[in-house]
Design a protein that fits this description.
Elements lengths: L2 H16 L2 E2 H10 L22 H4 L2 H16 L6 E6 L5 H13 L1 H6 E6 L3 H10 L7 E3 L9 E8 L8 E6 L2 E9 L5 E6 L5 H8 L14 E4 L3 H11 E10 L1 E2 L1 H4 L10 E4 L2 E3 L10 E3 L2 E2 H10 L3 E7 H7 L2 H9 L5 H14 L9 E7 L6 H11 L1
Parallel strand pairs: 2-3, 2-5, 3-4, 5-10, 11-15
Antiparallel strand pairs: 1-7, 6-7, 6-9, 7-8, 10-17, 12-13, 12-14, 16-17
Length: about 375
């Protein structure tokens, strides 16, 4: 039986047993069911061969530029003998490969202190990471946040991770929220039904991010999402981080924009073979399902758990502050292979495209650590203007 069929059968069995399941549970199974979920499929591809492109899969420059930030974090922490860099969800290992290779060649003192850790739930991706990163095996280990490990002094990094956390989908009806559940119609196909909220924390969430739904003027049928999974995730990060930084990069909005009455269909998106659509009930297990990140929730809950907000900016400004502009100039002046030069030039511009990757949010949080660097201050000031 094809794996997609197995996942459909498992979902249908779960729904028949429960009558209906929350969309959050549906999304969790579609993405993360063992063996059959989208991210646990052995055939998962990231990049041009897959369903979506990330900054890490686009060009090695992304990892090298962020290495500049990691080196500055190391200095801000007074150059500890061991600097742990924990990457959450490392894909096929391109980012780790870039950081390890660049730091080894360019910053040997930092490289000597660097311990690279990866938290990766997918067995197939872990195996690909091990193969790609074999040259640095003595500097690398895989970590499980569910088990006790030595506290981290360094940085916890993620890129396009939080957008894939399963979300609760809500619909405004009358003067209150209803939650969207998934059931089956008479033919066994997925259908949506409304019901009461499955988690009381949803009300607390809106209060935390400063949104009073009763004052927003929502029309009946207004839909949105709430990402409750980022709350325990941030709590875990803070508990594992003894001293250092949390660097999160993802697409999203501040709460006031995210929950604006005009955003009446929410932000849920699906990606299948580089095509974007909004139907999560087709290609189940074969497509990515995402929702934009509430940046306000990241900072508010982070502060509750002891993570101070240091910087909130856009990827374009952040990377320019780390030297992307200098790379563009140097690349234009090089006399190398013309096709390679054109491809790299295009990739660098994609990293800072304000309508694409460059528009992603960069959130830097700190625990018992500050990062007062002029070039990053300029990036934040430019964003504010």
């Amino acid at each position: 039986m094809p794996k997609g069929t197995q996942l459909l059968a498992a979902l249908q069995e779960r729904i028949r047993a429960a009558g209906a399941i929350s969309f959050c549970e549906f999304m969790a199974l579609a993405l993360y069911a063992p063996q059959w979920g989208y991210y646990n499929r052995p055939q998962l591809q990231i990049g041009r061969r897959g369903d979506f492109i990330t900054s890490s899969s686009l060009t090695r420059d992304f990892a090298e530029l962020l290495t500049e930030a990691f080196v500055q974090m190391w200095h801000a922490l007074e150059r500890p003998q061991r600097f742990t860099l924990l990457e959450m969800g490392a894909g096929e290992g391109q980012f780790a490969e870039g950081v390890l290779g660049y730091s080894q060649a360019t910053y040997p003192d930092f490289f000597a202190a660097l311990e690279y850790q990866i938290q990766e739930p997918s067995p197939s991706l872990r195996e690909r990471q091990r193969q790609r990163l074999a040259p640095w095996g003595d500097r690398l280990r895989w970590r499980d946040l569910d088990t006790a490990c030595e506290p981290i002094v360094g940085c916890i990094f993620s890129n396009e991770l939080v957008d894939a956390f399963p979300v609760h989908r809500l619909q405004w009806q009358g003067d209150n929220w209803q939650e969207i559940y998934v059931s089956l119609n008479a033919q066994g196909a997925f259908q949506e039904v409304l019901g009461p909220l499955s988690d009381d924390r949803i009300h607390e969430y809106f209060a935390t991010v400063g949104i009073d739904p009763q004052q927003q003027g929502y029309s009946d049928g207004y839909r949105t999402e709430v990402n409750l999974n980022l709350i325990p995730w941030l709590k875990d990060l803070s508990e594992h981080l003894k001293r250092g930084f949390v660097l999160t990069i993802d697409y999203g909005y501040p709460a006031q924009q995210y929950y604006h009455p005009a955003r009446c269909e929410g932000t849920l998106q699906c990606y299948y073979q580089h095509r974007c659509h909004n139907n999560p009930y087709c290609f189940v297990g074969e497509q990515d399902i995402t929702a934009h990140v509430d940046v306000t929730a990241l900072t508010c809950y982070g502060e509750q758990f002891g993570l101070a907000t240091l910087y909130v900016t856009r990827q374009s400004l952040f990377l320019m502050a780390l030297g992307l502009g200098d790379r563009l100039v140097a690349q234009q002046q090089s006399n190398g292979n013309l096709l390679q030069a054109l491809n790299r030039h295009q990739a660098l511009h994609q990293l800072i495209d304000p309508l694409g990757l460059g528009g992603f949010y960069v959130v830097l949080q700190g625990k018992q650590a500050r990062l007062n660097l002029p070039q990053l201050e300029e990036a934040v000031q430019g964003f504010a203007q």
